[in-house]
Amino acid sequence: MSLHDDAVLVLKSYEDQEELRQTYLDHLAAHADGMWKACQDGHITASALVIDPEHGRVLLTLHKKLRMWLQMGGHCEPVDGTLEAAALREGTEESGIAGLALLPGGPVRLDRHHTPCAWHLDVQYAALAPAGAVEAISDESLDLRWFAYDEVADVADESVVRLVEATRARL
């Protein structure tokens, strides 16, 4: 199965945000290349909010290009067999933490936003950090920092706040 087909199945089974979910499905129906950065009309991206429920905190990255505190995530790549694999790869690469495990139940949220390259139709997962996880800044980050749940609204935009709230509701 292709990554495109996996994304369609994931989105068809996602039961929230009906209008936005349909926008994603329409995009994929109209664009055979809709998973890839090369698609100028926008593309599906995958992200993972790294969370440590034991300590009540999330790991955010200060994105090098956007200069905003965000969850880990980005463009899908040909090595990604599934959206989950893309989210887990991005989470691992950008956090430096091995052994992340996605929360079961599929995506936590969808978020569509404009970036310098195009519209990103982000499929957002949550990833549990293993006990004793130690983060490491990647080339894509200016900084990487743990924030208590109630600190996120002070540093990040509403999309990240909503993702943290939805993740906490699923825990």
UniProtKB/TrEMBL annotation:
GO biological process terms, semicolon-separated: NAD+ catabolic process; NADP+ catabolic process
Listed cofactors: Mg(2+)
SUPFAM superfamilies the record matches: Nudix (SSF55811)
Keywords assigned: Hydrolase, Magnesium, Metal-binding
GO annotations of cellular component type: cytosol
InterPro entries: NAD-cap_RNA_hydrolase_NudC (IPR050241), NUDIX_hydrolase-like_dom_sf (IPR015797), NUDIX_hydrolase_dom (IPR000086)
Record domain Nudix hydrolase: where: 41-169
GO-annotated molecular function: metal ion binding; NADH pyrophosphatase activity
Name of the protein in its database record: NUDIX hydrolase
Organism: Streptomyces sp. R21
